[in-house]
């Protein structure tokens, strides 16, 4: 059986890969196998991976909202677009969970020109800059032109000192982040040039999906108990993560949810963070 990927490429269907992705969401082996069996009974030659994903998500949601929310993480990141500003704020939240002080959307004058920096970090007296590359489609990859361009910006900034985090500091590290993936050349160039790279699945076992699961810093866009319009309203209110929502549940009153729905949303949110 062949499956059509997001890019249009035909590949062999991999049952174990589907089971593994369901298991990572929290489903047990029996649950994952039951869902896969149901999907396989509906499959046909050339079926899109998007259709398989949607069907798996529906079946998972029928069993557990929390498992479905975790399974939906990559699509949930796309919900932080289309411009990517909310993605930058989300990445700042992920870094804050790891002990960094953060600043978002800062403009600094480099040696030659001014630059708007997506996120600034401080930890152990080291200042790092983060440049985010947001893609609104799952098949898009950040190619080698991205680290080449960002390296030139970093080079224009690194030799000066700025008033950052209540002291005169220089920027000594640069991190490139994408919600999707990097091409092999992009990773090779970035590593060779001393840049740090963070994508959906890179570095191995320490990519965005791993960090989100490890620190339970899920975006509000992954919640299954909210509509897309409601999620967008929360983002505008600067409620970016589920932890933000738990700390400020009144956001749900602000977007005019009923008492019962607020209860259901907070139940899902608390289950995800626990």
Automatic annotation (TrEMBL):
The lineage of its organism: Bacteria, Pseudomonadati, Bacteroidota, Flavobacteriia, Flavobacteriales. Residues 1-82 form the ATP-cone domain. It comes from Flavobacterium helocola. The keyword ATP-binding applies. Keywords: ATP-binding, Nucleotide-binding. Pfam families: ATP-cone, Mrr_cat. This is ATP cone domain-containing protein. It comes from the Bacteria. The keyword Nucleotide-binding applies.
